[in-house]
Design the sequence.
């Protein structure tokens, strides 16, 4: 038996009994208040640091907490999930959560070192083109640690803006029916070191 399967069994026997009623109520549907878009990084455990339980968060995870810009000629699992969250579930709060020591953002700063990893290099190169190029050039002039910190913040802001490329989000945002927020979370110190409101970012 795998270690994870043992943990599942332990959860079922030791912790689930006190949560059973909660999950029984969720059987016929969900109404999560928040769409939480964050990084795939294993060091981030959203349900842990937000103290959330089943039914609280509708989650998208990918390397770099990225939001694909809307393109009517193609689709992705992430764009599908975004539309389902906003148009079907009626979620009214979206949080883009970046984090310190983000490998995807570090990769953008070191693209030349990733040429042997074609998928990673191609995708991160395209992401880098989303940023204001003057701001991006300025970020790269700083020492490595500071550049990474600045790019992590800039990326969260950019992904917040990308959400407005979806007409169903733009319409709701303009009508004050959805709030778009950004965080940068420090998992080492359990601290949200940066927070952004889209009104401040635009």
Sequence:
């Amino acid at each position: 038996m795998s270690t994870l399967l043992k943990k599942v069994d332990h959860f079922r026997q030791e912790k689930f009994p006190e949560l059973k009623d909660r999950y029984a109520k969720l059987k016929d549907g969900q109404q999560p208040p928040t769409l939480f878009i964050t990084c795939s990084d294993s060091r981030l455990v959203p349900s842990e640091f937000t103290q959330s339980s089943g039914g609280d968060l509708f989650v998208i995870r990918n390397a770099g907490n990225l939001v694909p810009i809307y393109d009517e000629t193609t689709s992705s699992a992430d764009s599908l999930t975004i539309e389902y969250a906003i148009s079907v579930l009626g979620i009214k709060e979206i949080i883009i959560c970046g984090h310190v020591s983000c490998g995807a953002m570090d990769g953008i700063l070191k693209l030349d070192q990733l040429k042997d990893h074609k998928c990673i290099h191609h995708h991160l190169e395209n992401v880098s083109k989303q940023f204001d190029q003057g701001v991006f050039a300025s970020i790269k002039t700083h020492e490595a640690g500071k550049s990474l910190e600045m790019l992590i913040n800039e990326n969260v802001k950019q992904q917040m803006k990308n959400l407005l490329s979806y007409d169903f989000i733009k319409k709701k945002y303009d009508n004050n029916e959805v709030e778009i927020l950004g965080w940068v979370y420090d998992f080492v110190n359990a601290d949200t070191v940066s927070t952004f409101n889209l009104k401040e970012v635009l």
